Amino acid sequence: MFPFTLEKATSTQAAIAAGAEGARYIAGGTTLVDLMRDEVERPERLVDINKLPLGGIRVDGEEIVIGALARMAEVAADENVQRLQPLIAESLIEGASPQLRNMASMGGNLLQRVRCPYFRMLDAACNKRAPSSGCSAIEGRNAGHAILGTSKACAATHPSDVAVALVALDATMRVQGPRGERSFPVEDLFRLPADTPHLEHTLLPGELIVEIRVPGGAHTRRARYLKVRDRASYEFALVSAAAALSIMDGVVREARIAAGGVGTRPWRLRACEAALAGRKLSRAAFEEAARLATEGARPLHHNGFKVELLPRTIVRALEMAGEVA
Amino acid sequence: MNVIVGKPLTRVDGRAKVTGGAQYAADFNQPGQLYAVIVSATVGLGRVSEIRSANIEAMPGVAAVITHSNAPKLPYLLHKGVIDPAVGERLHVLQDDAVRFFGQPVAIVVADSLDHAEHAAAALRIIYDARRPVVDHADPDVARIIPDAAGADRSRGDADAAVAEAAVTVDEHYDMARENHNPMEPHATIAAWNGDRLTLWSKSQFLMNEQAEIAAIFGLPAESVEVICPFIGGAFGTSLRTWPHVTLAALAAKHVQRPVKLVLTRKQMFFTTGHRPRSLQRVALGATQEGKLTGVIHEGTGETSRYEQFTEALTAVTDYLYSCPNVRTQYRLAPLDTGTPNHMRGPGEASGIFALESALDELSYKLGIDPIELRRRNEPQIDEAENKPFSSRSLIHCYELGAERFGWSRKTPEPRSMRDGRLLIGMGTATATYPAFHAPSNARVRLLADGTAEVEAAASDMGPGTYTSMTQVAAEFLGLQPAQVRFRLGTTDFPPTPSHGGSWTMTSVGSAIRAACLEAQFQAAKRAIADNGSPVFGASIDTIEWAEGRLRRRADASAGLSYQEILAKTGDPIEAEGSAQRDPEAAERYSMHSFGAVFAEVSIDPDVGTIRVRRLVGAYGIGRVVNPLLARSQCTGGMIGGMGMALMERTVLDARDGRPVNAHMADYLMPVNLDAPEMEALFVDEIDPHVNPLGVKGLGEIALVGTAPAIANAVFHATGKRVRTQPIKIEDILTA
Fold this sequence. Notes:
The complex is a heterodimer of chains A (325) and B (736). Chain A is an alpha+beta fold. Chain A is built from eleven helices and twelve strands. Helix content of chain A is 27%, strand content 21%. In chain A, the strands form three sheets. A five-stranded antiparallel β-sheet of chain A has the order 4-5-8-6-7. The N and C termini of chain A lie far apart (50 Å). In chain B, helix 8 packs parallel to helix 16 and helix 15 crosses helix 16 (707-719). Chain B: Keywords: Molybdenum, Oxidoreductase.
């Protein structure tokens, strides 16, 4: 580990001031400390934000408001989240392990770094870790990598489960920074790798995630998260799908679909959603819509199965959401 | 008779383990100790051309940077332990600039704290002259060599002709992935020199070999090296051999003249501590329409390194498992640019039986004969390879018992014919077998004046419950209660034992303890007989007996005396040593193996291909069961390991440099609690008077064997898709 200093922020303003000077925020530390131990992350200055008043979960009208410092486990167990946004609870429970969920904050979850093995090995080329050094995965072992949103520089998937749910639900986030406060859709937090895979998010220097707001709606009650993987827990998704349906008289009024494990960012599937709107609830309709999910997919040597698995996962998640089978 | 063996005694060391009182190798921190970190090669083949260590030595806390340029030339005297490959020479560390495989140690950094050592090790720049290694076993250009060790090829009759002419045949290829052992406890060694004497607190399943190996490497007499390891946090075979990190810890401690602690990282446990070699196999079966095997061919190739020939019993089970006049087995090695593999639970047998039992299952469907019935029709009367009777063989009994408990009769024969809601259900079964080995062992018993006993052997307990089971054996043969016996293991100062592996700890060490106990009892009796105040004074040895913890005359049960009373006279303890070897005549006359039948039920999601094992039932004939609680635990652990083999475990290599890319607990998948199915372990009543005086055949290895093919066979039954690679992944099911 590289030497670093650690200070505890006593106020949000003080934290942001330190952040603007280049300090890194640390909350649960489940990604950052892990990567520091491998010297993939080498922060010189850490600001512990755990004492800031950014926790808690509350209901604001139709919206659920989740503090950035709320722990994954806390959000998953929250009565209002379970009642109003079961998709979020389900996606959290499917993520990580109980130990990690007890530590990891919601803000940190969204900013967690990729699981590409080469990113985590200093002796392998990685454009995300060391810009312009090359990508070891594209010609290497890439069964876990993305088929959507990839570039010649990077094909790492975004690892978060709850981010997939939040993107499907049109969640927004509020951030504070040296130049004040702003809000934007969670989906806009994530960049595509393009030629600059080391730039993963759209936060400005010093900006701190304050809270996540999830709007309500008719679709939120019939919403499920399906994570497909080779073991039952503690594994990142091969493919996952969040599906939410608003149904009236057996007809889909509105569908929300997003996928994980396949994209370089949480992948909203608007074409699939549009194809379902107005259709009668049926497996055939789900299959037709899901087929659109892999448009533009670019499989690598070892992850071609995801092209097959993605639509199957979406169909199954839609069936679960629609309580069809 | 005192009956302690066979009782479900809870672990005598359980409290120490769950309260943190049990000390593992890395817990033995020494005053003034420094910390060593291994720098592992980042290329897969070539040589170290430059090491830029000058600036590293100036980093905070760094005491030494040791590389091949400044390491002492070590004697590396010839040492071939029984656990080492018979052919080849072990890796000599830091003795030259050659890089033979990815992750090979090329330097050690020693510092005053682990953080300082890790940071300096990461900063050390090493320049390599690298070439592309060959690590893909399936590469057609890889040479296949005949192992120098005997027994690679066996044949009876004409198997090729028999298969060619058979009415029904199966002829398929199987590919089983490389696995790493991944126990919870990492390899760890603390080394401390006192003059020319070296003490190693080191994770080891074979203390005597570690002592001899390190003594040979440093040119010392064996008695100058003491190895201490009272507890092991799982090993599965990875700590049978003494790997380079032990040498490096001792070398570093000598270099800095301080005790040195060296713990491998999880990632480093994928480099130089062995692995289950990937195997490529072919099994061809020929049978009559009635299901009688007429010909069996089993060819297998295992990985090895370029510098040693690691061999395992990949095709051996096929020689004796079923009755067939024409059997040919062939075993080859594929030397690769990799570290030497080593034994991993159920070595060889577990991989080989996957191919054989998959093929047999396939044959059963071709013939339309129930898989159990097919095995029944091919049950041999004797070991047809050795032409000897089995000392005991309960395979069919295991199938009957297991089938009943599992509910095999509920299975509908057609593939894809069973469902639970939308899920596909499959049932599969397979045979398990493992040799009942034995190795010479010693033990010591000390009867103390307070009537208790101390029992000592240089054995290990990697989790099966050696502490508890040996306590039971000693209590049984001394006629004491378990609480009156203290069994100690884990130091080379105790009487020598064989390796803690191969399912021979109870057979070998247990037999030695029995012998030592009988000898101690004999000495106690002699002392009592010689004592003119004792109720047995002057009795001849054949007129007295031990009963209810007392020595008495057979003719008069009313008077007797305890150990305590015998020893009270002089207060001198009685000490006895015992040793045990297998009766050579019995070994010559009988073929000795354990057998079992494993049953698996899986559910498979037909949409997304996820496989869940719902139930596992194993029925085993393993001779006498010393402790049913421990035995059950050993079996469920083994079944979980077999499940990992079937569905999850796979070390993925990057062919460009031989790098294991999933050297991490998040990426190398093993079953987690949520995956663990309902499991049952059953033991048939089996009395085997030939294997050893205890009548035990060993359990640790067979517990893993057979589970993987049972699961694969269940996957076929569920889906109609035969997957001949292990592990079976979701992607294999998608095309079903």
